[in-house]
Amino acid sequence: MTEPCRLPARTMIVAMIAILAACATHHGVRSSDVGRDPGIDALSSRLTPLPQALGASTVIGAELEAKAFAPDKVKVAIYLPPGYEPASGTAYPTLYLNDGQDAAEVGLGPTLEKLYADDAMEKVIVVAIDMLPDRMGTYGLSDRAGRRSIVGDSRFGPIGRRAHDYSEWVAGELVPYIDSRYRTRREPQARGVLGWSLGGLNAFNLGWEYPDVFGRVGAFSPSFWLSSDRTDAASVQRTRLAQGRVEAGPKRAGSRFWFAVGSAEETDDRDGDGVIDAVDDTLDLASGLARLGYSANLEYASHPSCEEAVAFELLPDGRHNQAAWARMLPLFLRWAYGKERPDAQPQE
Fold it and tell me: Which CATH code of 3.40.50.1820, 3.30.70.100, 2.60.40.1120, 3.20.20.450 fits the domain covering 5-337?
């Protein structure tokens, strides 16, 4: 039986990173700089061709109104699984994806087709949401109860000024739109949200602030370095925002979280413990979840399991880019929607 909580010593993580570093060429990147977040310095304008057929799946495109961001519209791509029939009685789990414009680069379509062909995961309706022009403003943290954004600082300026508006739109408008038009399962445990980098930070926010909507969260290379005070390294460490939200609690009953970080994302180590900040920040948040009472497996790479509510994957040689996130994607999909999960439901 899998242990309810697997928390490795930091010395083990240090050793793992040292071994991986010896096999890879590292590029110096500062975790305090948003510049390591693809899409912030140069916003992408790529769009998935819509509509299109993808193997046995179908992809449908839409441009949706979002009053808070007018006149901008939000472009989404809806991936319907093989065998989807509007008139059938089958209802499907859903996955909402930030940074949907990266779908091709992370291999979303081929990965889904491969897992379906291998009968390795449930059939899922995926809703890929293209980033809005103000990516730094929309992707971030929010306080749902206080109806406000939680703004962090960076060398490029504030991050998350519109995070509350965006999160409210996704949870309060986009989800009902999809549920009203497609055969979806409506319980939170059947609805997931995924993102990477700043999009991963916001994916965590959506799961944390809207547990009645999203029950499964995937965050690849999440920007958990975001803080309210960048005066010095100690101030950043002390005022990290996502970790503060977790420490304040309470536990969200039924919520599940899967985190992944690459071992070669950067070289910074602000607290001098031998673990790069990208890993440290995510482990600190995951450990905070464990202290709230979540079962946790922080050695997912060597002990993969779908039983724990929190999982952490350290991706060997993974950098902060789409190539690494493409490697993380099938691991997350198997964890969140794999047929071997204890809560997996049979589909026709």
Answer: 3.40.50.1820
